[in-house]
Design goal:
Elements: E1 16-17, E2 20-21, H1 22-29, E3 92-93, E4 99-100, E5 119-126, H2 145-148, E6 156-163, E7 168-175, H3 180-183, H4 195-204, E8 206-214, E9 221-224, E10 230-232, E11 238-242, E12 261-263, E13 268-273, E14 279-283, H5 299-304, E15 341-344, E16 354-356, E17 368-371, E18 376-382, E19 386-388, E20 390-398, H6 406-409, E21 413-421, E22 432-438, E23 440-441, E24 444-445, H7 452-457, H8 459-465, E25 471-472, E26 474-479, E27 486-490, E28 512-518, E29 527-535, E30 545-546, E31 560-565, E32 571-575, H9 578-582, E33 587-591, E34 602-606, E35 612-619, E36 624-630, E37 659-665
Parallel strand pairs: 11-16
Antiparallel strand pairs: 1-2, 3-4, 5-37, 6-7, 7-8, 8-9, 8-10, 11-12, 13-14, 14-15, 15-16, 17-18, 18-20, 19-25, 20-21, 21-22, 22-29, 23-24, 26-27, 27-28, 28-29, 29-30, 31-32, 32-33, 33-34, 35-36, 36-37
The structure holds MU-OXO-diiron (FEO) and calcium ion (CA) (3 copies).
Length: 672
């Protein structure tokens, strides 16, 4: 294993690393791309597989996927006020009544939200807005941990909207990380942050629940104050551990000798909404908040990128200065209590959120639920680091008709990792086959030499041991509720040296999307076939591929991150890295995946300079698309009072503020 170099303080330079700015690398994932992290995989990179990715099914499958379509939808069911009319030439047709004219790609320096003609946008909630009743108004010069713990957190990522009635809904958002240079006036460097500022940043992490309401004759939703409103923070929210690792020696600490209660959640990236209306959230780059131990247990260093304190005393975002549980020397097991999938029930504001250890511990991008044919619960998950893996959990029990046993189903089940093969039947239209290799089964480890708890805490090690396929940073993984296929966003892997199975491009700066078909179209299957649906980039680049659709008719797309589907099964892809890889602002793209338009990437919007598009929720039946604008103005050298963006503009004059935005059709009229 290569010795990992120490993580530098924020490099305030204008260079880019791969597809991201240096500022993004530092704040978002602790400069993970500078390190040789997690390259334990025993699997070879297969040379020159790269079978041309051109097999396509052009006929919409009638699959009868009642299980796939169960209940996880967040469509808000808005009655339509406008009748369908014939689409104009060049319009993207999502459904008979939801259409848009694709926007042109936007240069990465443009500080604006760009939406299609006929659409407008407005801010639902932004960093610092009061959430919990009694929260103070945002004041850039008077921030405090106490205020922030009651206000909307920073860098909203995953977004879901859980309907309550025709006029009420609960917005749930993740707050992945913080940009201290854009939060605190007078920022110099991380080492100079005050303890109060560090605690404020801890309170700005986590999740928010905000009730939304709407009014007659207005297509817009508005944030409201309600008894459901809630903040989950890294600072003070208790979580209960569930599953096989709860109580294990690997998660016992000085302050929690029972190993069952964790304070806080970290780096919550993407997520999923369950059929039982709870929210799953992935703890991603958790290692960066801890100061490493140069001589202790090497597993968090070797497989999860934890950086030793040696050479950079005081790293780990300096959180250890205000709480020694973030110092691995002082509290060696605290780090093992992060890196899980958490579950929150937004409809029960008094509930204790949980961390499900049966789903494994890695740098979880997100977790999306589908149902197997026999109603076992399948959870698809990506581990977003170069050469890490794609996972699926399948519950032991079956979901009851009312779904009330859902949360308990995530406590017991089998964890699988994907192994792709280039072998396929030449008479078929897929590019290869694959299998889900069990890491745990029936409550036992399936990995020689590792206990059940070790498999679940050091899951990367287990995946490598069984020959899982190293992927190009698998981010969101989601099953299409209409065609039943599973889509995997591999965002990029600039350092990939050679083509590999299902990862066809060396130096893959632009990413790709893999499409899986579970055998029998059953989420409980243990084998699948796969196809490269999209190989992203500048369409003029011959290495790109758009499912066979003519490249001269698609929008440029790069670094796919979050995925979601509209009511017709159309795929929507938000991006994280177009500025560095294409010179364009990040975007939200619509891509039909069936029929003659399969592969026709059409850009719906662009976010402002320095921002990433996150958490899309597409309510095509309500003529609305909701997005999180994450890290607006995250560009080199930007600070408060000298920012590169002033998003979301209204009244903002000194620094940008991450926010949730609704894009809606102008002139749309909601009627009860
Ligand atoms: Fe937080 Fe993998 O993006
Ligand atoms: Ca992401
Ligand atoms: Ca998603
Ligand atoms: Ca990303």
């Amino acid at each position: 294993m290569t010795q990992t170099p120490s993580r530098p303080l924020l490099p305030m330079t204008g260079h880019t690393m791969g597809t991201r700015s240096a500022a993004t690398c530092h704040f978002k994932c602790g400069d993970a791309c500078l390190r040789d992290e997690g390259s334990l995989s025993a699997s070879p990179h297969f040379a020159e597989v790269a079978r041309a990715a051109v097999s396509r099914r052009s006929v919409l499958q009638a699959l009868g996927l009642t299980a796939a379509a169960v209940g996880a939808s967040t469509f808000l069911g808005t009655p339509r006020a406008q009748a369908a009319t014939a689409p104009a030439a060049g319009e993207a047709v999502v459904s008979p009544t939801f259409r848009f004219r694709p926007v042109e790609p936007v240069d990465r320096t443009v500080d604006a939200v760009t939406v299609p003609a006929g659409y407008a946008w407005h801010t639902l909630v932004q960093w610092g807005d009061p959430v919990v009743p009694g929260a103070p108004a945002f004041d850039l010069d008077r921030q405090s941990p106490e205020a922030q713990a009651m206000q909307f957190g920073y860098n909203n990522d995953y977004l879901t909207i859980v309907p309550q009635s025709s006029t009420r809904a609960l917005l749930v958002a993740n707050h992945e990380y913080t940009n201290e240079n854009l939060m605190y006036p007078g920022f110099v460097d991380e080492a100079s942050l005050t303890d109060e500022q560090i605690r404020t940043s801890m309170a700005a992490h986590g999740m928010s629940v905000v009730q939304l309401r709407r009014y007659l004759s207005d297509p817009r939703w508005y944030a409201d104050s309600s008894r459901w409103n809630r903040r989950i923070t890294a600072l003070g929210t208790p979580f209960r551990l569930t599953g096989p690792v709860a109580g294990d020696a690997l998660v016992r600490t000085t302050r929690d000798p029972a190993g069952r209660t964790v304070i806080g959640t970290l780096n919550n990236c993407a997520g999923g909404t369950t059929p039982w209306r709870t929210v799953l959230s992935g703890e991603e780059n958790f290692d960066q908040y801890f100061r490493g131990d140069p001589v202790g247990d090497p597993r968090n260093r070797d497989t999860y990128g934890l950086v030793d304190a040696t050479g950079t005393p005081g790293d780990g975002r300096f959180w250890y200065r205000v709480d020694d549980r973030f110092d691995v020397v002082a509290e060696p097991n605290e780090i093992n209590r992060f890196g899980w999938i958490v579950e929150l029930d937004p409809r029960d504001p008094g509930s204790t959120p949980v961390k499900h250890t049966a789903l494994g511990r890695f740098k979880h991008e997100g977790a999306t639920v589908s149902l197997a044919a026999d109603r076992r619960v399948a959870v698809y998950m990506g581990d977003d680091t170069a050469d890490q893996h794609l996972y699926k959990f399948v519950s032991e029990g079956r979901l009851s008709p009312g779904g009330t046993n859902g949360p308990r189903l995530l406590e017991r089940g089998d964890l699988y990792v994907a192994r792709f093969s280039a072998e396929g039947d030449p008479s078929t239209d897929h590019d290869g086959t694959g299998e889900w290799v069990p890491l745990t089964r029936g409550g036992r480890s399936m990995v020689p030499g590792m206990t059940l708890a070790e498999v679940l805490v050091f899951t990367r090690e287990a995946a490598a041991a069984v020959g899982a396929t190293p992927m190009d940073r698998p981010e969101d993984v989601e099953r299409n509720p209409v065609n039943g296929r599973v889509y995997v966003a591999c965002t990029n892997s600039s350092n990939r040296a050679a083509a590999g199975v299902a990862n066809p491009r060396p130096g893959n700066r632009w990413g790709h999307v893999v499409e899986l078909r579970e055998d029998g179209d059953d989420a409980g299957a243990t084998t699948f076939t796969w196809t490269l649906a999209l190989v992203c980039g500048d369409p003029a680049d011959p290495s790109t591929h758009f499912a066979g659709f003519p490249a001269d008719r698609v929008s440029p797309i790069s670094c796919p991150d979050n995925l979601t589907f509209d009511s017709r099964g159309g795929l929507w892809i938000s991006t994280d890295g177009q500025p560095g890889s294409l010179g364009l602002n990040d975007a939200l793209h619509y891509v039909p995946v069936d029929g003659p338009e399969r592969g026709h990437v059409q850009q719906f919007l662009a976010v402002p300079t320095g921002a990433e598009t996150c958490g899309p929720v597409v309510d095509d039946e309500g003529d609305s698309v909701f997005i999180c604008v994450q890290h607006p103005g995250e560009t080199a050298d930007a600070v408060v009072d000298a920012p590169s963006s002033l998003f979301p503009y209204g009244g903002t004059t000194r620094t940008p503020r991450p926010a949730v935005v609704q894009v809606y059709r102008e002139g749309g009229l909601w009627r009860r």
